[in-house]
Amino acid sequence: MKQKKTGILKDKKQPLTGNQFAKYFSEESLWEKIKKFSKTAGTTVVYAALLLFYVMKSRDVTVKTKVSIAAALGYFILPTDAIFDLTPLVGYTDDLGVLIFALSQVSSNITPEIREQARQKLGEWFGEINEEELQDLESKIF
Questions:
Q1: Count of CB atoms situated within 10 Å of the CB of 93
Q2: Is residue 59 assigned to a domain?
């Protein structure tokens, strides 16, 4: 099976620091997953993924942090995770847990600009967004 280059882990010999999911992350795969499943996953899950994505794109973030984020996003992208994503009501629960954990680890890197970028993109995809849902997620992170 041919491995995709992630843009972060270009050298196949570079260790994944114990996290097997980083290899599944690519920007293209992330956008494809969100495009296909954003309505099913919901605004909270998509907002969490967008926050992580924009933190990862920041120049101020270390490579180690980027690898951790790539691992969390790789788990989100991977269709075969702990709870099958299309399972009604609970399919994205494990994904959200992984995303929230990763966000809590990088919360000091989430700037107001990153939050605004994520909210703007979320607005493009969902139109009207429930501010309370976003604030609920943020209260778990900050």
A1: 14
A2: yes
Q: Which two tokens stand for residue 94?
A: 């494990």
Domain with 89 in it: 22-141
In a domain, 6, yes or no: no
Cβ atoms of 39 and 98 closer than 8 Å? no
Task: Read off the pLDDT of residues 70-115 as tens digits, 9 standing for 90 and up.
Answer: 999 988 887 664 445 444 445 677 888 889 999 999 999 999 999 9
Give dist(CA 36, CA 4) in Å, integer: 20
Place of tokens 């270390």: 62
| Total domain count, the chain | 1
Examine residue 96 and state whether it is found in any structural domain, yes or no: yes
Task: Tell me how far apart the alpha carbons of residues 63 and 106 are, in angstroms, rounded to a whole number.
Answer: 12
Task: Give the tokens for residue 62.
Answer: 């270390």
